[in-house]
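so my prof wants the structure for this chain in the tokens format not the other one, which i didnt know existed until like an hour ago. anyway here's the sequence
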Amino acid sequence: MTEQALRETYLRPFQMLVEDYDAVGLMSSYNRIGAVWAGGSEALLTGILRDEWGFDGAVITDYCDHHSYMNGDQALRAGGSLWMAGFTGGEMAYETGSNSYMQALRRATKETLYMYLHVRVTNQAYADSIGDTSVVRHNFTTSVFGWRHLVALIDIVAVLLFALAVRGVVIDVKLRKAAKAEKKN
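here's what i got, hopefully its the right format
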């Protein structure tokens, strides 16, 4: 496929979503563009999507159950934000102890939180503009533990789980480094 065909035929709908409709979440795909799968293509996710089109949101991978060529670390380094790992394990493709790795994790976290908060605010603003907030705010009443408390609790648990996952990755990286250093000695 030529770059012209890629841009005019395949990327144009995504460009319209980003530039004309302010999309804040996109999903990459299984397929390859040249020798690199779409979710791990820095040229696609960073060069075109973020640098050319100004996309600030999150890029989530398609369900990645083909670890032979789909790698979460590669997706993170290429500009991806969320990795949908499958049931089989995979190895990190690159080193994970450098400052650049931590910067990529911070960037991905920022993009994911931006997407989440932007969608919440947009949905609330739309509901307010049409005068029907029932889609974002439930009207049933409870005596002790209300619906809003439950949603706040779910939000807090989700943030804590995300933080624990990031902490787990960092600990795993440190343990792998220590094991490699021990093997060398």
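also thought this was worth mentioning. The two ends are 49 Å apart (CA to CA).
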